[in-house]
Structure formats: structure tokens, C-alpha cells
Amino acid sequence: MSLESLALCTPAAVALYAAAAHFGAPSGVLLACKALPALGVGAHLWLDGCWARAGLAARYQRAVCAAALGCALGDVLLELDKLALCPAGAPCFLAGLAAFLCAHVLLTLGFRTQRAARGGTWPRAPAFGVAIYGYCALLFTQLLPSLHPDPVLVLGVGAYAIAIGTMLFSACAWQHSARSPIVDLEPPQLAVAGAALFVLSDSLLAWNRFVAPFPHAQRWILGTYFSATQLLGLSVRTANAPQRHRQVSYRLGVACAQAQGLFALNPRWAIAMGYTKAIHKGL
After folding, report:
1. Residue 269 and residue 55: Cα distance in Å, rounded?
2. CA–CA distance, 279 with 259 (Å, rounded to integer)
3. Where are the alpha helices (DSSP H) in 83-125?
4. Can you say whether the dihedral through the CA atoms of 106, 144, 200, 87 is positive or negative?
5. pLDDT tens, 8-31?
6. I want to staple 225 with a disulfide (CB 3.0 to 4.6 A). Which of 94, 200, 201, 232 is the partner?
7. CA torsion 38→40→42→47, rounded to 10°?
């Protein structure tokens, strides 16, 4: 399967979800569409044969593939919780949190594999880790008053904050080991961008749920999340691709991220443009 098909599958899935949400589709349709973007990335990498190959590059591809499928499961569980469709007493939110936590652990392992393949070391600047973990700690302290008195929720959200911080730090460590300028947009930079958007999406979701709901929260949460999965998927497909394929992938990835940002601004734009026009404009 080509780089272009991966770059197109996620925006197409986002357009379906935007249409279903905007036109008030039944809950079952929303439930299915919500998981399609992550499922599309995971299925694409799976069908690309990542489980049949050996080597560090294949290990990274398997890690991102499994993480994307875990995200799809988390999407279903969180949507069940949002639509109040969970069976009585079923902790769908915590189960969804656990699915995404496992996805972050898999991504962290994948980033560490790529860093090790380059013979890189962890960044030495103390400010590097302080900034990331400091942000996660600050976010957790803001959420903490709303999490009491449920100890399971406190522990779960605390573990999740550590997991997303470690995932982002690992992606940055891979970029650091690559020693290439950010403007080159090589696979490590795509991974860092995807990881950073993932952290932003999770932060927005947590703030909206536990601290203070804000206008158009769902658009911003999903716009950043869908872009994150797209960029992480592209970081896999370009890791060992020829230079000419990398250039196509980068341009598609940036255009897709821009197009998916339209979802955050107005879902109707995402539907009307179908993302295809936005992608071609980005090219």
C-alpha cells in the first residue's frame, strides 16, 4: 500500500465522523465512525506486512500499528461513555483510559527502538525533561481537585499523565538522536509533532471533562487527535522510504494535518471539502 493511501485514509475517516456528528446520526453510527481514523492507520500498517518482517524498522511499525489499534478500542470505549451506552456499572471511561495508556506505552517503546537504532543517547539538557514532565505535573494538579475522592480515578489519571509525558519525551529523544534540523521534517520530527498533538488532545479532553467545559471542545479535541494519529502513521511509512517518497509523504502529511484542523474550526468545512480538495491545495 502506498504512502498516498495512508495519507488519504485518515482524512476520509474524519470526514465520515464529521458528517455523522453534524447530521445527528444514530449513536451506533457515531460509535463506528469515531474509531475509523485510528483503525484506518492501524489496518494500513497491518496490511503493509509489518508483522511478517524482522528488524528495528519493522518493530517500530508494529508498535505504532498496535498503538493505533489500541487507540481505536479506546475511542469506542470513550464514545460509549459519552453516549451513556455503557452497561450498568461498567467503567467505560477507565477502560478507555487504560486502552490509550497501553497505546502510549507501545509508542514509547517504538520511539526507544528507533533511538537505539541510531545509537543516540537521551537528551542531556535538564530543561528538556523538566519542561515536559513539569507540564504534565501541572496539568495533573489542576485536575486533582475534580478527581477526589475516587482513588482509582486519581491513580489512573496520574499514571496516564506520566505515560503521555514519557511518550513525548521518548519522541523528542529520537529526534535528538537524529541530529537533524526540525525543518527537515524527517520521521523523528513527524513523530514529535504527532506525540505533541496527542498530548494536547488529551490535555483538552481532561480539562473539558474534569475542570471546565469550553466551547467547541469536541472539535478541538478530535481535530488535534486525528492529526496526531495521521502524523504518527506517516512517521512509520517514511522511516526507510526513498527521498522522493519522503517528500510526497511530508507534503501530504502537512496538508492532511491542516485539513484535519478544519474539523476543529467547523465540521461543515470538513464535510464540504471532503479533505481531498484541502490536500491538493496543500500540495
Report:
1. 42
2. 7
3. 92-117
4. positive
5. 566 666 667 777 777 777 777 877
6. 201
7. 180
